[in-house]
């Protein structure tokens, strides 16, 4: 038996290369252990003669070996064959779900020790940083689909802890469509593109998805989330994350506490509106990828706070729902979220394929101090994730890929297989007494020396195929979500259901789905039915009833304010993008003032005009143009400023009128200075002074500090949906 230790010592290394040290994060900050560990696998920039994979130097890579200048190509051209073979095999199967994604490295650090609840090493000491890799993704569409489709978003975090890799594989919604993993193939087959025509890409507005959901009432709660604006986030950086399942934290002496994991973005939660998301998909299908990459490159490192809902084991049955049901959340009004640490993403990958595409997450990758529950969806995921990595990454050695390698030392008896990177010697079985012995197991003590010991839960019963009655209430929390929404959020949900069901051709599916919505809320169902041409549904029994045999007083809150986007705004406007529309004769002083005031608050300010280059201001000063209007759109910005002095040009510029019209229609903050209000009128805003989120400065005044402070406050609110 031989060891395969983790970095930095002892691991088989590639040949030494001569190159400058890796620069680390853009901020010039200290490199973490994972970044340093990857140095062993980083290839230098090509220098010197080109070679084949066997190290043979090549004299020409532009022309195949032929018989004469116009003769046939010779099969003996090994360089040609190698190039084509490598090209033909350089793609691997994309993920069945979550195929479209983006990722980044960073770190996690606790605010305090959680030793009271868990022996997980990375949670023992306040301020100790653990390297992480995070991958965000959409669920339905293939790798080539757009970022801003209506869909669930994956939020998967790999912690490279000193005890091994821990993967928190979650979503941006706290619940899921199904309760039992045996339904997962059915759900995915239904949500994916229809088999006869491979349509639609990246969307759920089709018959098979809604047929499945109309026949599977447990999906109703998740549908409410998916039809809300949560399904079209403004960016990954402004998106919550949830562990979905109930897990256990376990102490060194074997005491357990149920836990729900929450990620909360420092920038606040912000979303797009449906029309905006559709336009964005056309203007920039890589909108979310680009946003994450550019923010990190600019040193505006995204940050999330990790929170936990801690539930003593004695309270497992204290709720009007089953704690193990993945279609249910625990309202924060019943169990507050306790902030326990922060995560910062500060480094972009160097190679998308090697890192973001090959990273392998697995719900069963846990460390001592974190364990599972009997959630039937989680139990199935613990099998499925490993199984899918075997086919997608070509065999059992995917954990040896650089992005997946743990920082912890690795000693196993595992051998051979596709992609093996280590030359082993000695025996590969246990126990043995020859060949140097075998790795020692560390039993005999409660989690001695960081050993993983499964939580000792008593389990007995008959083997049956039957769902627990405590999982039977499929509408109570869907109704809670609906009641907790602001009026504009409810309107967006109605519009989403109407759009999606309006695309369904099967009348029976539409009818069943409307009937399901009536069990959530009668007014919701009636309005959706009216918009898609369905008969008004009959009233259904109120859903807010106790689950199973619980007493009527245990139902809980009728509303949960924490579910509404109204209550999840961030503070400040860092990284928000503001467009300033300019043309010949613009008030250059106002442009400079806007840039100065908004950039001081951390916003990105760009000037847009009909053409690139520059325009002459009214004071003779040139104003530099960052982008031509034809190359961009208002959906790529969070706010708009229209300075004084250029109205004669802008009001007859179709791209400028459309830009402002879309910004107004999507509820974005707009500032109009002096005669800049003429562009608002041309865009359809006849009484701009009465519109929420519009800041005006009269023609005889120059905007002072207080004007820009007020506008910053408007941008901070992100959107004015009542407009």
UniProtKB/TrEMBL annotation:
PROSITE patterns: CATALASE_1, CATALASE_2, CATALASE_3. Residues 29-45, 542-552 have a biased composition (Basic and acidic residues). Heme binds at residues 95, 135, 184, 381, 385, 392. It is an enzyme of class 1 (oxidoreductase). It comes from the Bacteria. There is a cross-link at residues 362-385 (3'-histidyl-3-tyrosine (His-Tyr)). One of its GO terms (biological process) is hydrogen peroxide catabolic process. GO terms for cellular component: cytosol. Its EC number is 1.11.1.6. Signal peptide: none annotated. It catalyses: 2 H2O2 = O2 + 2 H2O. The active site is at residues 98, 171. One of its GO terms (molecular function) is metal ion binding. Keywords: Heme, Hydrogen peroxide, Iron, Metal-binding, Oxidoreductase, Peroxidase. SUPFAM superfamilies: Class I glutamine amidotransferase-like, Heme-dependent catalase-like. InterPro entries: Catalase, Catalase_AS, Catalase_clade2, Catalase_clade2_helical, Catalase_core, Catalase_haem_BS, Catalase_immune_responsive, Catalase_large_C. Its cofactor is heme. Residues 1-26 have a biased composition (Pro residues). Decomposes hydrogen peroxide into water and oxygen; serves to protect cells from the toxic effects of hydrogen peroxide. Belongs to the catalase family. HPII subfamily. This is Catalase. It comes from Kitasatospora xanthocidica.
